[in-house]
Write a structure and sequence with these properties.
Number of strands: 18
Distance between the termini: 26 Å
Shape: globular
Largest sheet: 5 strands, antiparallel
Oligomer: single chain
Order of helices and strands: EEHEEEHEEHEHEEEEHEEHEHEEHE
Strand order of the largest sheet: 6-7-13-11-12
Length: 300
Amino acid sequence: MTWRDRLPPVRGKLLRDEPLGPFTWLRVGGPADVLFLPADADDLAQLLRALPADIPVTALGVGSNLIVRDGGVEGVVIRLAGRGFAEVAADAETATVTAGAGALDAAVARAAAKAGIAGLEFYSGVPGTIGGALTMNAGCYDSETKDVLVRAEGITRGGEAVSLDLAGFGYTYRHSAAPEGILWTRAVFRGRPDAPEAIAARMGAISQRREAAQPIRERTGGSTFKNPPGDSAWRLVDAAGWRGKPFGGAMFSDLHANFLINGGEATAADLEGLGEAVRADVREKLAVELEWEIKRIGRG
């Protein structure tokens, strides 16, 4: 009998050897030892308290900025989805929005706009969920999570409920200094009052800008590398000669050279291998170190 046979009863779903590729935008990757879809925060906390401390736990949103390696992921992968984690509530009087960690960033932007709450429009251009946004200070077009977050709630690896205000995250560019191992379950954001029509117009402009500049209809993971200080990752990838150049079934987009694309037949090894080849080339030719923005998890 293994640890997988001794998991406690849950109200959500426990799926063993579940392929993770279908849960990611790049559509690659092996199975999770166990995929857990908790019913709500209490269900999540109960499993974490009962799970042996040596079993790894990995959070998974909609997989928009993620490569799951071909060998799959050890331990328990937790995906927060459904009614228990995707609800969004906007309060026009306080100009605040409360959202579950499984809510799509774009859904949060739409709810804020409908309530006449400005400042969260940028989330309409961020693929992924609020849980991921909290973890990496997600943002675009000169706005970031740190600009609107009030506080967030989560569950520790030991199953304890925690709450952290903005200062506790210690945000910098695409990085959080919050304690590791917290699975975020809900967050509160604050904007400012504005006319819904004006907010919707700004969101429309963001949508048009993305459509024109990013391969949003491809199997892509979004921005692959972080922008180095004073430079752009796409410019460096392009300058090193990798825009549109095939690597197995993978390539960097012709439209935006920092967007990694699965042409349909790529493996996770192709995608990560291409990224590492580009990093090495940029280091050698341009003397710049590119840092991954896409998260890579699992066994190679």
